[in-house]
Each structure stands twice: as C-alpha cells, then as structure tokens.
Amino acid sequence: MKKLALLIPALLAYSAIVAQPKSTTLPPALSSIKEADLKRDIFDIASDGFRGRRAGTIDEFRAAAWVAQKAMEAGLKPAGEDGTYFQFYNIKRTQMAANSMLSVNNQPLTLSKDYWASQPVDARFSGNVKWLNTMADTSADLQGKIVAMPILPPTPLPAKWISLYGYRYAALAIRQQSAILRRHGVSAIIFVADAVIESEGTLAFVSHNFQEGQYVVQGSPVTARVKPLPTLLMRGALAQQLKAGASIEADLRAETYLYPSVNVIAKAAGTDVKLKEEYILFSGHHDHDGIGNPVAQDSIWNGADDNASVTVGMLAIGRAWVAHPGKRSVLFVWHGAEERGLLGSRWYAAHPTVNKQSIVAVLNGDMIGRNSVDSAALLGSIAPHKNSTALVDMAYKANSSLTKFNIDTSWDDAKHPEGWYFRSDHVPYAQAGIPSIFFTSLLHPDYHTPKDEPAGISIPKLTKMTKWMYATGWLVSQTTARPALDGK
Length: 488
Prior knowledge:
Blueprint: H1 2-19, H2 35-45, H3 58-73, E1 77-78, E2 86-96, E3 101-104, E4 107-108, E5 115-117, E6 123-131, E7 146-150, H4 165-183, E8 188-192, H5 195-198, H6 200-212, E9 214-217, E10 231-234, H7 239-243, E11 247-252, E12 254-268, E13 279-285, E14 290-295, E15 298-301, H8 304-323, E16 329-335, H9 343-350, E17 359-365, E18 375-379, H10 389-403, E19 406-408, H11 427-431, E20 436-440, H12 459-478
Parallel strand pairs: 6-7, 7-8, 8-10, 13-16, 13-17, 17-20, 18-19
Antiparallel strand pairs: 1-12, 2-9, 2-12, 3-4, 3-11, 5-10, 6-11, 12-16, 14-15, 18-20
Helix pairs in contact: 2-8, 4-6, 8-12, 10-12
C-alpha cells in the first residue's frame, strides 16, 4: 500500500503531461536549416562568377538555372510553366543608345563617362550655351535657350543618414530645378555635378542608374507623359568651358527593345486532403545590379545581402518543408527583375501559375543577413501597410517562440523617409488583396554597392532570419482557417 501511495502521484503527474496538447508553435524540421548549407550557397550564388545577376542578362539566367537546380536537389517540384521551374516574361527597356553624340566646342564627349542623360531622350540641338550661376538668373529671357548651371542642393535636403543619399540628392535636385527651367521655355538643360555627386560611390551609382534607363513589363498600361526635355548631367571639370559661352552640338538617341527575364517557381505538396489545395507563398528575388562603374576598383555588384540572402534562405526552407511537409502546400517564387521595379513579382501576381485564390499568404524576404543578430524588422505589420492582423500575429508568435528578435516596426511607418515598405516583392501581392508581410534585417552601408559581398554576411543572422520565416510559414500551414484580410 505504501508503494502504491507513492506511485499514484507520479502516475497522475505523468497523465497530466500526456494529456496536454502538443505545441505546434515550433516547426518540426528546424534542424534541416543548417548554417553550413546557407554559407555554402551564398558564397556560390553571390560570387563574382555570377557577375551580379543583372536582370535581362545571361547572368540572371545562369542564376535562375542555379536556383532551379538547387530547388530540384532539395526535393521541390517544378511549379512554373509547361512543367518547368521557370516563368519567362519580357521587359521593355528604354535607354540612351551608344551612338548618341555630344560635343562642346567641337570636342566630343563620351556618354556615361563625361555626361549622362537623366532620362532617355531623342533630341538634336546645337547653339551657344547660356550659363546660369543660380536660379535667380532665370529672370532673363530663356525661351528656346540651351542653359547650363551648377546643380544646386535640393530643398529640403534628404536626411543625411538615408540610403543612397547622393543619388537621392542628385535626382531630387534635377527634378526640382529642371521643372523651373522647363516653365521658362528652355530647349535643353545641362547640370554640372557638384562635390556631393562627384564623390566616388555616388557618381558610380548615379551613372549606373542613368545608364540603366527605364524599364516596364511588356504589356504594362501606357500612361500619358510630358515629352522629355533633354536634361544632362556633366562632370564638374567641364564647368569652365560651359561658363565661357561654349558652343554645343548634340545628337541624342534613345532606343527601346525587349528582352526576357525569368521567375523561378517550385512547390511542395501539403498533407491535408483539403488544405493542400491552398498555398503559402515564400517570396524573394534572385537578381541584383550586375556590372557597374567600379568603386575601389570593384565593378561587380554582388548583392550578397540583396538578395542572395533570401535566395538561399528559401532553399533552406524548401529542404525543411520536404523533410516534414505541412498541411497546406507551399510555393517558392524567386522573382527576377526586382531591382528594375519589382517586375517579376508584378508579373507573377498578374499571371500566377496556380489559382490566385488558393494563395493564402505571402511571406516575402529582402536582405536578411546583416546588422545585429538580435534585431529584425517586419513590414506590413502596422497601419496603413498591415493588411492581415492574423498573419502578423503568427509572425510575432513564431518570433516569440523561437527567434526572439527585437522587432523594429519604425521602418513600416508611412512617414518613414525610406519608404521601405514599397521597395520589395510583397507589394504586388498586397495590392492584389493577398495577406502579405515582409521580413528584413534592414539597410547597411554596403547596400547597392560592390561591397555587398558574401564575406559581409552574418551567417548566424541569416540562419536565424530563415528560421523565423520558416516558423511563420509553418504556423500558417497548420491553421484550419486561412489568415483573414483585415476588414473582410
């Protein structure tokens, strides 16, 4: 009896433990997400061998083929078009043609070295230059004149800490000052770069972007535009020639052409008879900026954090999902041409390879491998960007149970000057009415420079962010009710 009396409390305690429901907070295949795999993959896809994976080039296609091969090796099935991992679409690009000509005092200048067009334009003009020292000189009659002036600081100045400060400075100044000159009826504008723009990193990025020209997805609606006014940016060394009433002759030519880009799409089937007809979509982009003007003698813009980090993170999540599928199915979409204006995600949101109504949530990632290992950001988590409280709550629950990041929501504020919410691939899906959130570890000084290399990635941070995305997706996969849109 004494032994039985001692045994009963132990049995009762054991029964209480067994009776408790098993937690579904932590996903079952976390061990499949390995630092070694992530490190191997990111040093591969963000290596110099892929030449920065610029959209519309053979380098982007090589990167897409690499992603598809890795997805297949992970056990993910093709979910693109025609039974493949791929979805191709055409980009329409307009840029300055290489045979554009410009001379000052009969001395030829070189496009993208001595001068840049702020937007592609077809224009022919010649004559003497009217030099303006400041905007106060616009009181003179400028109708039909070719004017040149030093670029002036924009008003207000961009915040000093903001990303791509020099480019924002240049673009805003050109936009403000050319609008004033246009109202005075000038025929062409030449801005002379100042010390801010002439700094090495800034001029490289400004040049890179002006060379890129303008991109749209083929078939995008055409909006009415004001006829472009020839607006050039010249190096500061040319200022003295222009001040002396230089003569100028220009034959500027824009060219428009189509070339393909590609999304890579894979899937893993769910286990529930009904829920497997629905999809959680993991989203990222595999392209970056390609070959550009060198900074510190490095001309390859590798894009290790932006966005090789999510490219390899999604592969790791795919391996985990194959090891232990959830109730719902999953889609992995590695978008192309994100850096050209979210073109791949805009295309897929409009032309999904599954029924759009079957996509219950989009978990997008962009830049998840830098900054403090203890902090992260979740965008789409506060108004007005939040479109699904239920989905946001799942992301917070996953973080609370597993990764325990200090979550920064300040960049989700509609008044934040970066406008970071609108700069990644979740946006077209949110606009299509699909619950969507955006995981990121935010910007850093190497953003959009050749310094964004694999050696700068924190592998522990990348692993932790990958696990957070995976854990959030797992929660979505296991719930009977799909995450509701707010207000529905």
